[in-house]
Write a structure and sequence with these properties.
Elements (H helix, E strand, L loop, with lengths): L9 E4 L20 E2 L2 E2 H10 L6 E5 L3 H8 L4 E4 L5 H9 L8 E5 L2 E2 L7 H8 L6 E6 L4 E2 L7 E3 L5 E2 L4 E11 L15 H10 L2 E5 L4 E3 L3 H13 L1
Parallel strand pairs: 1-4, 1-6, 4-5, 8-13, 9-14
Antiparallel strand pairs: 2-3, 6-12, 7-14, 8-12, 10-11, 10-12
């Protein structure tokens, strides 16, 4: 794949209510909260653009008008009258996405600009329509994450439940349209799709070689700003 001309589309998950971020989200959608002066969603877009991404779609629900106004037509927006969840939101937006596979990126986690280029490694790892490639974060390099880990990464690069090195899901997936073939209509999560890939041993991992910031609550925001200010 020519990653300059044909870099996969990016689906940005930006529809959530941001309840854990209150009171900051009482008047502002979570993706637009600034981290050291830069909105969260712009930091995520910056990570993708640094590797060649050109086409972005975002879903929006909570304070959707602010998300639409922020982009001013520069990013396609899939507006959800009712929250569809991470899986339902992506499925609803599939007609707006033209590449196969495509990236799905959370808008509350990022890595420092120009610190690593994991997306290109993820593209190289995606070799078939049943594959899902997950960005993996080493717990020692994660900020704003309270659990010990989410999965493990085996020596052969497959994500497992309990074999290999502990890793955190870094909020980025590369997957094909075919993955959604048997998914329900309406609201659903991406996690059943990850579980299915785990079972068929097609959930692959790429490790981020950089610090990772998860901004899920005010404490995570404060810690990210402190560390970014010190870097």
């Amino acid at each position: 794949m020519d990653t300059t001309e044909r870099f996969p589309d990016v689906m940005l998950l930006a529809a959530g209510l941001g309840t854990r971020m209150r009171p900051l989200t009482e008047n502002l959608p979570k993706p637009l909260i600034p981290v050291a002066g830069i909105p969260l969603i712009e930091r995520v877009i910056g990570n993708a653009r640094a590797e060649g991404a050109k086409r972005f779609t975002a879903n929006a629900h909570y304070r959707a008008d602010q998300v639409l106004a922020h982009f001013g037509g520069l990013v396609k927006v899939s507006r959800e009258d009712e929250l569809l969840g991470t899986g339902g939101g992506v499925k609803r937006a599939l007609p707006m996405l033209h590449s196969d596979p495509f990236f799905v990126m959370n808008t509350d986690a990022f890595w420092p600009e120009d610190s690593d280029q994991p997306l290109k490694r993820m593209i190289a790892r995606h070799t078939g329509p049943e594959d899902i490639v997950m960005l993996c974060v080493q717990p020692r390099r994660a900020t704003g994450f309270s659990r010990s880990h989410d999965f493990c990464l085996a020596p052969d690069g497959l994500v497992t439940r309990d074999y290999g090195a502990p890793i955190i899901y870094g909020g980025v997936l590369l997957l094909s349209r075919e993955i959604f073939g048997d998914s329900p209509d309406g609201q659903f999560s991406l996690y059943p799709l990850l579980e299915a890939a785990l079972e068929r041993e097609t959930l692959k991992g790429v490790v981020l070689d950089a610090p990772w910031y998860h901004v899920g609550d005010p404490n995570g925001l404060a810690e990210a700003e402190r560390l970014l200010g010190a870097s």
